[in-house]
Here is the input.
Amino acid sequence: MTEQDFYYTIEKGAVAEFKDRGSKFIGYAYPVKSVEEFKDRLNEIKKEHPKATHHCFAYRIGLDGTTYRVSDDGEPSGTAGRPILGQIDSKGLVNTLVVVVRYFGGTLLGVPGLINAYKSAAALALQIAPLAQKQVEKEYVVQFDYTQVNEIMTVVKQYNCRVVSQEMQLFCNMTVAIPKNRVTEVVYKLKELRNVEVSAVGA
Here is the structure.
């Protein structure tokens, strides 16, 4: 897989409902950046729907898309989590969680019916969730003298970098997220300034 300069996720949460033969499927789509965040969201939904028969879900986290999980939560294997993940993947999304809550309506839907219901609830929620194209960023620590703040900020703004954190004292420390496709230029520009140190986070 080639390294991309952009990735797609959803901007904010969305909820949609799908009904089939009395069963109600409520799809929740959320942007999540970590497994901890996913757990919080799932717990919230379980608290909101304590009487639901199933809370099935799928998520894909991380820019390389390798962190993912599916759960059928007691439904026949492969009928819920996989179809939900399929909808996330068909839109090419990462850092995205979809939970589908089911209230059983008394009629068994069978395997094809379940797959269709979970897939549809997930698809509907993702259809109404606003999509966002985000830049892949690399974080760098920039160390500089306080008198150079304006010069540093000029470069940061010019290249659409994002200030992650900063400590402003006589000698300043700033963590900057630089769009991946502009890293070489930005680091060069910053290093051109006198007495400025730039180092990659985690390097």
Q: What stands out?
A: The chain has a mean pLDDT of 95. The helical segments are 35-48, 81-90, 110-128, 149-158, 183-192.
